[in-house]
Amino acid sequence: MDTHFLRSGVAIVGAGSWGTALGLLLAKNGLPVRIWGHDAEAITRICAERENRTYLPGIPIPEGIEFTSELESLAGHGLVLLVTPSRAIREVSARLSAVDLNPKAVLLSCTKGVERGSGLRMSEIIQETLPEHPIAVLSGPSHAEEVARCAPTAVVLGCQDAALGQSLQKAFCNSTFRAYTNEDITGIELGGALKNIFAIAAGICDGLALGDNTKAALVTRSLAELIRLGTALGGKRDTFQGLSGIGDLMVTCFSKHSRNRAVGERLGQGEPLTSIISSMQMVAEGVPTTYSASDCARKLGIETPIIDQIRLVLDGALTAPDALAALLARDPRPE
Length: 335
What we know:
Low-confidence stretches: none
Helix content: 40-55%
Strand order of the largest sheet: 3-2-1-4-5-6-7-8
Distance between the termini: 45 Å
Order of helices and strands: EHEHEEHEHEHEHEHHHHHHHHH
Oligomer: single chain
């Protein structure tokens, strides 16, 4: 198992909650970590306080983790994690292509989303921009707040090179964090992206105070829809029944930490989307992904009734109660 690329340390592109949590994890595992953030003032504050109070308040950051706002300082690292919002992946990847990266650097996408217009997954965008580097992905039910507090967590690493996947697995695993490997990069990324849409729907159920029966039915039918669209887009059915499918779907639909579920809850309570988004410090990836997934489904002729209704609610074309009524009014059919 070759881990030579880890000897020169880990660079993390993105100083939000997930980037910081992954930095804490990898530093705990004995790896030198440097985290880049675009906001120089915020980075200076984190260095002074040794705490990311905006995104992970109350979690101390060891002195061994370095922070920088200079992208060029990531040049020598052997493992580069991309942990930015999906809307920034193309721009950040382009900026990284101008950096003299370690020629043997492995790029690990930790962002969940599908680009609107192109329908490309995050790893595909990174590969377009940095084709000379091996690409892997990380996904699964893993809220940053709990990973940072060392709550037992399991994720999946997607890599087509089995040996590289095992090396990454060794880097991430410890007594509270377990990483499985899977060669189905497509399925892993789609599971991690699409589940955010259904978390908005689950939040709407909470906002409407509909109860457990409704939410259980919704999540079950969401999984069926996720598998239907995900397999049409090239993912494997077995992958969607694992950590980056049903696992991620469950945690995002039910967790108090889920930004997407929280967006849905507020929509269910009648709050306008613009007001919700403007009040949030972090990105709810399910909002842009709804449009990307809906566009892909229409191109492929895939039936996605839940995604369709969520898009109408986000557009303001339908209220949350009317969207629910539309789903219940569909013709009965076999499961």
